[in-house]
Amino acid sequence: MASFVSAGHNIGGLRVDPGAVANGLREADLTADFRNLVAKEALKLGVRVITDKDNETLAQYLLRIQTGSGSVIIEYHFDAASSGATGATGFVERDADRLDKAFAKEITDSTANILGIRNRGVHSEEKTHRKSLGLMREEGIICLVELGFITNSNDVKAFQANKIKLAKEHAKIIKRYDDLIS
Fold it and tell me: Edge-to-edge strand order for the sheet containing 72-79?
């Protein structure tokens, strides 16, 4: 099968969706950069990686990809709130199984540890403001992770300073789960 790595929002195309904007940064730019780093590291580890394209919407991406029970699926985002809000958060589907939860926990724990920010834990998609996330309808081991708060300059600085180390760790986790279900 394959692992699917996507960036929340998009930076090009007919319908640009920058996501959250704060501190002179766009969420879509940060997540696209990080998606590329993770994909590069995962490829080095021998993982077959499929990514979203910078000019496609989530709906277009979901129509294009062919996930299955042997897939690892991750999407990167940044949260936004007050400038004091901090931390990494993982989200799983409503009826997440033990592998979904374990994968999301490892991703969220590694993000919080490497960036030195608060670990906000892993929650069901029902705790998001949308209550239901399109990505969670795919088949496989799925996690959406908020890498920190774009509205918190310390979260952003920690991310920028440690994104390569974090990408390498996420790639290792993706490979471990990819090997487990392949």
Answer: 49-51, 3-7, 72-79, 141-149, 88-92, 119-124
Containing H/E element for 121?
strand 119-124
Structural domain boundaries of the chain?
3-181
Of 122, 179, 159, the residue nearest 38 (C-alpha): 159
Is the pLDDT at 60 greater than 90? The verdict is: no
Rounded Cα–Cα distance for residues 180 and 146 (Å): 24
Residues 19-42: b if buried by 16+ CB within 10 A, e if exposed: bbebeebbbbbbbbbbbebbbebb
- Which residue in this structure is represented by tokens 């300059």? 153
Q: Which one is the CATH code of 3-181: 3.80.10.10, 3.30.70.580, 3.20.20.70, 3.40.630.40?
A: 3.40.630.40
Instruction: Provide, rounded to the nearest whole percent, the portion of the chain with pLDDT above 90.
Output: 68
Confirm whether pTM is higher than 0.90.
Answer: yes
